[in-house]
Amino acid sequence: MYRNQEGFAYPLTLTIILAALFLLTIQLDQFISEKRIVKQTETVMMQEYYLLSSFKKTEKMLSENADPKESGVYSFKKGSVSYEISPVAASLIQITFKTKIGSDKEISGYAYYDTDLQKMIKWIEKN
């Protein structure tokens, strides 16, 4: 019986191949998940950058201009940010920003500009 090894190589080879395929499947799933997370992180960072850039441009426009445009659009390489200006009080203006990048969900934010101080005093980001 010690020398009878007929049929031993096939089950062993099949087990090794199945184990290797199982490990490759796990690695592929992890790679795809990480790639998706990187793409989402890139999109979120781009949206935040676009909002911040629009925020600064609007603040500069409001500080230089006594009578600003009520609405407008800032165009960027991969998206755009639209804004609407509406007065809240005598010295307070609310600016609504809406960021759209490709087919992703639209992100909106609100900023309050004090005309006496000539700067943004509050920022709220809504998803």
Mean pLDDT across all residues, rounded? Answer: 88
DSSP strand tally: 5
- Helical run tally: 1
Q: Which percent bin holds the helix content?
A: 40-55%
Strand content: 25-35%
Radius of gyration: 28 Å
Low-confidence stretches: none
**What is the CA-CA span between the terminal residues?**
71 Å
Overall shape: it is rod-shaped
The class by helix and strand makeup works out as alpha+beta
Give the strand order of the largest sheet, numbering strands 1, 2, ... along the chain: 1-2-3-4-5
Give the helices and strands as they follow along the chain. Answer: HEEEEE
**Largest beta sheet, briefly?**
5 strands, antiparallel
Walkthrough of the structure:
The protein has one helix at about 10-65; strands at about 70-75, 80-90, 90-100, 105-115, 120-125. The chain has a 5-stranded antiparallel sheet, with helices on one face. The termini are far apart. The mean pLDDT is about 90. The chain contains 1 helix and 5 strands. It is α+β, with helices and mostly antiparallel strands and about 130 residues long.
Name some characteristics of this structure:
127 residues, alpha+beta, rod-shaped, 1 helix, five-stranded antiparallel β-sheet
Task: Describe the structure in brief.
The chain is an alpha+beta fold and 127 residues long.
